[in-house]
Amino acid sequence: MTIRFNWKTVALALLILFAIAEVWGAPTAHMSEDLLPLVKGQAGAVDSLVSVVVFLDTDSEAPAMISADRPMTRAERIKTVTRTLRQVRPRAAGSVEAVLGQSAQGPIRRLWIVPAYVALVPVATVDHLSKMDGVKAIVSDLALEFDEPVSVAPAAQASPTLSTHLQLLNIPAVWSRGITGKGRLVCNFDTGVDILHPALSSKWRGNHASLGASWFSPYYPESEPVDRRGHGTHTMGVMVASDGADTVGAAPDAEWIAAAVIDQGDVIIDFTFHKATMEFARLAARHARAMVIGTTGLTAENLAELAELSRNFPCVQAPNMAVGVNVLFKLAAKTASILGDDYDIEIVEAHHNKKKDAPSGTALKLAEMAASGVNRNLAEVGVYERHGMIGERTKKEIGVQTVRAGDIVGEHTIYFAGPGERIEITHRAHSRDNFAKGAATAAAWVAHQKPGLYSMFDVLGLQDL
């Protein structure tokens, strides 16, 4: 047999093989430019040592590990994130640690904010690591260098009558050119301005112009400028304030006008969802802002946190803001205490078919008030479902039953059933306007209270009944 070679075909095949080999041998991980010549052997230092940072691919489940099933404080979030990141172990960690353990010179440092290792290794190991599955990047562990300053000189002495920020901005050089704001008008749209501030009162344009042309506030339209938050007074001061020789404003000879349009609300009113409610409550505590909460479905943990948070702001929390419902609460407690254990207590509540929680917060509060009238703990005696052969009703239990249908705004009936008679007390809401009116009444009341957790009984003066 005679074998004939087509040398052109052979040559082409060899070229393809060389190209494939080059691709297979190429690093798969990103590599910093200073390492590439070493890895390719161009610098003649294949066996030399180099300090590198080896970054690993992150696993997709790491963010999920940090998520929480309950609201956390800032300190708790920091601890959770730190602990979780330290525990994250990418899939390539074991194989990379094995390679580094065999070839690294000196200690191997593990980084945890991002999954990475720092080690002094031979260049050949860098090449090997770059081709490993799960290795994302390899960069040189470069040392930081300090650039000596061009010159060193002591800072200029601050003027005792000139604010430091004006000197840092070189404002006196602007003043030296005659630019002091004279004949100019400055306006800020902020939280207002305190007209009684000695460094600002004489600069207000309203001293010789109409109030409407010098001051705007949707909440205090007939008053002279006020600032219940302080922020607007500060920003106006930075712009124009001066009091005798003490100058803190960049344009001390300018006049000012102001519009109080930011952060003017006094009370946060919340009818949302229990998780959102707690976020708003934390904001209210942080900014010492009064709050009215009508959200239902708050858990025992939510209520405990709210009690702690309200040490920093006044808060009215009630499952129902309607005046009639809160009278019903009191009637339930009084009636139960008068009738005693001889009368069974049952509650039926009905709402629209879109309501998410059951029983309603109002029904639970009604049951709680009735239980307090006969010295029972609702957590021990409350019954929320009956089905099948349940046996006789116990004397102590308080039943709470739920109806969800149509567009019922809200109905609550409490039954006191005794031998030969029963008493029914019912509240029916015909519209949601009564809830809004009650919330507005609570907001007007709580805006002037000290920090603490209040109820609609406090608002309506029913606490001692």
What does the oligomeric state look like here?
A: single chain
Mean pLDDT equals 83
- Overall, the morphology is flat
Extract low-pLDDT stretches: 10-27
Please tell me the CATH architecture of the domain at 25-140 by its name. 2-Layer Sandwich
Biggest sheet statistics: 5 strands, mixed
Helix content: 25-40%
Rounded Rg: 37 Å
Task: Give the CA-CA distance, first to last residue.
Answer: 118 Å
Here the CATH topology of the domain at 25-140 equals Alpha-Beta Plaits
| Helix run count | 16
Strand order of the largest sheet: 1-5-2-4-3
Strand content: 15-25%
- Structural class, by secondary structure, is alpha/beta
CATH class of the domain at 25-140: Alpha Beta
Total strand segments: 19
Task: Give your account of this protein's structure.
This protein has 16 helices and 19 strands. The chain has 465 residues and is of the alpha/beta class. Among the domains are: 25-140, 2-Layer Sandwich (Alpha-Beta Plaits), CATH 3.30.70; 164-260, no CATH class; 323-386 and 393-430, Dihydrodipicolinate Reductase, domain 2 (2-Layer Sandwich), CATH 3.30.360. α11 links the parallel β12 and β13. It is flat and about 100 Å long.
Helices and strands, with pairings:
Blueprint: H1 7-25, E1 30-31, H2 36-39, E2 49-56, H3 62-66, H4 74-87, H5 93-103, E3 109-111, E4 116-122, H6 123-130, E5 135-140, H7 164-168, H8 171-175, E6 185-190, E7 215-216, H9 231-240, E8 242-243, E9 246-247, E10 255-260, E11 267-270, H10 274-287, E12 290-293, H11 300-309, E13 314-317, H12 323-339, E14 344-351, H13 361-373, H14 378-381, E15 382-383, E16 398-404, E17 410-418, E18 421-429, H15 433-446, E19 452-454, H16 456-460
Parallel strand pairs: 1-5, 6-10, 7-10, 11-12, 12-13, 13-19, 14-16, 15-16
Antiparallel strand pairs: 2-4, 2-5, 3-4, 8-9, 14-17, 17-18
